[in-house]
């Protein structure tokens, strides 16, 4: 029910709303020390009225950052491929699920995310503790568990609209908090940025 509420609000956004928010998100995110110093960033390509990521992906790629993008596997886990610009993306329809833009090149392995300095996570909301509400498919819960098992500690950043930072979201025992949320109007930290 909570997820549906956030999705309904997003559906009401205009193309201009989404574009303006994407531009502001890119500016805010690019100013984060975690991204300014990153050599490898695992990210995602936004779909529909999700907070837009392509402007940010292009800016990171232009900086010489290695950008990894997810490839959804049949079991909802994620493999990864390198982003080489918007022309390197292909639209992939996953059964009854939404179509996703995924990297067309070589698949790197689900463990490739362990080498990222920062991981940009999609979500529907984040609360004041840094707990993220995802879409419910579990793909990023698997990514976060993989990072934890490997002892990897990249900066975990979720990109949202301003109205999606809320007091509390439901929490499962396997959920892990993010380190920061970036919205068009600013950044909120749940853990101090590492030097």
UniProtKB/TrEMBL annotation:
Its EC number is 6.3.3.2. ATP binds at residues 132-140. The keyword DNA repair does not apply. Pfam families: 5-FTHF_cyc-lig (PF01812). It is an enzyme of class 6 (ligase). GO terms for biological process: folic acid-containing compound biosynthetic process; tetrahydrofolate interconversion. InterPro entries: FTHF_cligase (IPR002698), FTHF_cligase-like_sf (IPR024185), NagB/RpiA_transferase-like (IPR037171). Its cofactor is Mg(2+). Keywords: ATP-binding, Ligase, Magnesium, Metal-binding, Nucleotide-binding. The keyword Zinc does not apply. It catalyses: (6S)-5-formyl-5,6,7,8-tetrahydrofolate + ATP = (6R)-5,10-methenyltetrahydrofolate + ADP + phosphate. GO terms for molecular function: 5-formyltetrahydrofolate cyclo-ligase activity; ATP binding; metal ion binding. Substrate binds at residues 45, 50. Belongs to the 5-formyltetrahydrofolate cyclo-ligase family. PANTHER family: 5-FORMYLTETRAHYDROFOLATE CYCLO-LIGASE (PTHR23407:SF1), ATPASE INHIBITOR/5-FORMYLTETRAHYDROFOLATE CYCLO-LIGASE (PTHR23407). NCBIfam families: MTHFS_bact. This is 5-formyltetrahydrofolate cyclo-ligase. It comes from Streptomyces acidicola. The lineage of its organism: Bacteria, Bacillati, Actinomycetota, Actinomycetes, Kitasatosporales.
